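tool_log.txt
---
The assistant was asked to compare two proteins side by side. It first ran the structure predictor on the initial sequence, then on the second. Raw inputs and outputs are pasted verbatim so the downstream comparison step can read them without reformatting.
(1)
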Amino acid sequence: MTFPTQLPELRALAQQILATGIAAANPHTALTPFLTINTQQQLQIVLNNGHARHAPWRKIHLCAFGKAACAMTEACLDIIPSTMLAASPLIITNYDNVRNIDNALVMGAGHPLPDAAGLLAAQQLIQQLETAHADDLVLVLISGGGSALLPLPVPSVTLADKIVTTHYLVSSGATINEINCVRKHLSLLKGGGLTKYAYPAEVHALILSDVMGDDISSIASGPTVPDCSTFAEALTVLKNYRLLDKVPNAVHHYLSQGVVGNVAETPKITDPIFKHSAYTLIGSNSMSVNAMLAKTQELALPAHIYQHQLCGDVREEAEKWVCFAKKCTSPVALIAGGETTVRLTGNGQGGRNQEFALAFALAAEQYQLEATWVFLSAGSDGRDGPTNAAGGLVDSTTLTRIRAMQHNPDTLLQNNDSYTALAYSNDLLLTGATGTNVADLQLMLIHPN
């Protein structure tokens, strides 16, 4: 196709390409190739190295948690006969993605902040794990959001303490790896804790990654794999983001006790509980980025991967992207994936993708980007921060529309009020919950003047 020159066509094309990236993370499509029933009527699990794992397991305990938990479970139930299951599958997901699944227990829980329902779900999971035998398999389906959905704090830390700590962390600009380092050291299930409860049963996790670089120990805070982080590192995260005096005393005290050895560390790679534990990565952000690139190639559009692991403060990254775009001398699609951060200094409403989009529009004006362009940033799960928007889709006329409503877009950005700003310009990206989660996707279509 010919590269569009008009904004309506560019905006429609951008959403079409984004939809391709989200479809590539479809949990059912991603999971199915990795599970089969072999000729011996045993469950066979394909590993990422191409080898397969199978055994005459007595029973299979199926549990799932994360934003894609329902879809991943449905894919499993299409393959695994009910006679192989030890009990009804336990599914824990965020409220937007809750739906009825025959012969399964589906529990909704809070995200991005944990809640009492999540604590109840975590306790239910522990009860199921404790029924597993040495010749059983615990099949765990993990997707993004699992850290918040399964809050099971250590005895001296309350759920309220965890909620407050999580709030400060996600508002501080800390990376997901840093946030999860703290979470793992305050939890009984994270950082290998699930495998510890399942032992001596064998464990296998099928994982849909929402973490850049696909660090398995960080996805949902690594409940089935060894944890290489330490109490000292967790305490350093709080110190670096000036949170030591803000988090509850119980949190500070527990981490400090861990540093001096008065509390046991999270399970490490040498722990025998991991001898019969394995995982398969079934989908990731990079797969979605590559799918978006393939879509542009299918449409015969010039395209370029701007970044595979976009991170950093959204306002700084917006300026960098605009400066890069100014060097473009011909029409091109620029694609990226990642997980940026936001520092909350105001009391407005929004999320990192909406703030990225608004910051991009302001940076384009500041640096005089002379082109016809559209830019979108979206959470692949369809939910950006505590809002009903997936993100924002802005263009070279966005700021004009905001100002026409008698509002200052820069003031709104400084108040972290990107949702309000993009609502004024009708630039909120509203996809609804997608049933998957592989972090964020970004796309720019630019036609230089």
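(2)
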Amino acid sequence: MINLEIPRKFKPLVRQAQEVASEVLRPISRKYDLAEHARPVELDMLAAVIDGMNDGNSEVGGTGATGVRRDAPADASANRNGTNLSTCLSIMELCWGDVGMLLSMPRQGLGNAAIASVANDEQLARFKGRWAAMAITEPGCGSDSAAIRTSARLDGEHYVLNGEKIYVTAGDRADLVVVWATLDRSLGRAAIKSFVVEKGTPGFDLVRLEHKLGIRASDTAAFVLRDCRVPKANLLGDPSVDPQKSFAGVMQTFDNTRPLVASMAVGLTRACLEEMRRLLDEAGSHADFDRPAYRQTAAEAEYLRMQADYEAARLLTLQAAWMADNARPNSLEASMAKAKAGRTCVDVSLKCVELAGSLGYTEGGLLEKWSRDSKILDIFEGTQQIQLLIVARRLLGKSSAQLR
């Protein structure tokens, strides 16, 4: 059974993440929001420290988004607190500091999480210490990953990739990009595989960087692949196409990374609530958890409602991560956590801007920035609508063909 307390062995990690968020990320948050596409050089030394933590303690892991892997025994009586849970806890703290900064952390990208989830031992060793982005979305393919058109054709010892990828987080700064492509479009989902493409590979060209509403410290790139030759050894997972298994192998990545994105939303939600509590206290309005909401002011009642949503999102996220650590199927819980945390983050950030009035709408504080940052957390790694669709399929026992 999941314990609601932070595991003792993770408390030093959480404390370190809190210090990083308050002393490093929060102070430069506005600076890199205004200087879009500028690389946060302050993170280079921090990334080196995190690498050392990861190398020195593989059980606990570092404070970034790597290390998610399902290697625990599927024992119903086990209660293992591993890297999925520790990573979620540290991400919550770091995103209290700044979401865009976490996404800009060298070697801590979602591509790294994808490699950690499904790579074999040889690939783990070969790609160790390198920053990996993940490229799924295409101009004609967003929420429906099965509609991917980027193709991969086997030619001797290489796969030849052709297609276009957009909205690649950290695509410009990363060393590697995990590209989703299909071996045969006629076979549908079963033929979709993920390939590690090294930056500088001929035929793999960066065409633009996006200007965005939020997370402006993080670069978001678009790529074109033209006869890009990738070694066979860079395919992640099983190269065979099995229509019975669909593309469960590549989708397992999402079961691990969606709780991470939910953790980002939980951390940002907490930042908004703490700032709102401070503003309410300064105004002489004190929300009281021991009194019914109807006996408090409208602002205090809203704060209590938002705090309840925050706690629900946080616990769902920890449950999904804990299940992954204990090798329990968590696709339902991962989507529930992502949906709840993403929606809560958007609702809370916008409500805090509203309640704070002019203090929430200007650049004098961070509430307006957080309201812009929050929206992406309800979109990437599967939109709110897609998460609810996945939840419905799991609860009703329907396949993607039966419930669309």
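---
observation on (2): Residues 56-67 have pLDDT under 50 and may be disordered. The beta strands are 132-135, 151-155, 158-169, 176-182, 192-198, 204-209, 220-231, 235-236.
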